[in-house]
Write a structure and sequence with these properties.
- The protein is an alpha/beta fold and about 190 residues long.
- The strands form 3 sheets. Strands 2-5-8-1-9 form a 5-stranded parallel beta sheet. Strands 3-4 form a two-stranded antiparallel sheet. A two-stranded antiparallel sheet has the order 6-7.
- α1 crosses α2 and α5 packs across α7.
- The protein is globular and about 55 Å long.
Length: about 190
C-alpha cells in the first residue's frame, strides 16, 4: 500500500484521469483521496458519488444538474456534481454500474465537450479531474459490450490496482486497535 500511495502522489501532479480497481473494501477511495490530496487541485473541491447508489433515473440530473421546471418537482435550478467539482476532483465510485446511455454522456464531458443541464439552454463548461473506481472487471465488460471501450480508455489514462486485504493482512484493523487509530494510521501514510 505504501508503494501504491507513493505512486498516487507522483501521478497526482498530472491532470490525467485515474481508474482505480480492486475488490470492495480494499481502500480504493483512500487511494483516490490521496491523488486529490497530492494534486495541484487539493485546495479545490473534492466531490464523490457512488454511481451504484444513484437511482438510474437520477444519474443524469445528479451529474449534470437541471434547470427549474426541467421535470415535475424541479422547483429551482440545481448544479450537478461536475459543476460542484469545478477546478477540483470528481470521484466516481463504482463507475462500472453506469448504464450505456450515461456512459456516452460521461465520455463527452470527459473529452472536454460543454454540456447542458437538464432543461437548460446554455452550455456548461467545467474543469474537473475525474478519478473513478470499480470492483468490476471493466476489461471483461468491454469485451462483452457492457462497458464502452472508449470510456474505459478515457477513464483509465492511469490505472491503479489496489490489492485485496488478504494480500496485505497488516492493513486489517486488529481487534485491539480502534477505528480512530486505524484512520490515523491511514493519514500517516498520506503524509
Amino acid at each position: 500500500m505504501r508503494q501504491l500511495l507513493e505512486l498516487a502522489e507522483r501521478i497526482a501532479q498530472t491532470n490525467a484521469a485515474v481508474l482505480i480497481t480492486g475488490e470492495s473494501g480494499c481502500g480504493k477511495e483512500l487511494v483516490a483521496r490521496a491523488v486529490h490530496h497530492y494534486s495541484l487541485r487539493c485546495a479545490k473541491p473534492w466531490v464523490d458519488v457512488s454511481c451504484a447508489a444513484l437511482p438510474e433515473h437520477l444519474v443524469e440530473s445528479e451529474l449534470f444538474g437541471y434547470e427549474k421546471g426541467a421535470f415535475s418537482g424541479a422547483d429551482s435550478a440545481k448544479p450537478g456534481l461536475f459543476e460542484l467539482a469545478h477546478q477540483g476532483t470528481l470521484f466516481l465510485d463504482e463507475v462500472g454500474e453506469l448504464e450505456p446511455r450515461m456512459q456516452v454522456k460521461l465520455l463527452r464531458v470527459l473529452d472536454g465537450v460543454a454540456y447542458y443541464r437538464l432543461g437548460g439552454v446554455r452550455k456548461v463548461s467545467v474543469d474537473v479531474r475525474v478519478v473513478a473506481a470499480t470492483n468490476q472487471d471493466l476489461e471483461r465488460m468491454v469485451r462483452t459490450g457492457e462497458f464502452r471501450s472508449d470510456l474505459y480508455h478515457r477513464l483509465g489514462q492511469i490505472c491503479l490496482r489496489v490489492p485485496p486485504l488478504r494480500e496485505r493482512p497488516e492493513d486489517i484493523v486488529s481487534v485491539g486497535r480502534t477505528l480512530p487509530q486505524a484512520i490515523q494510521s491511514a493519514l500517516v501514510l498520506l503524509r
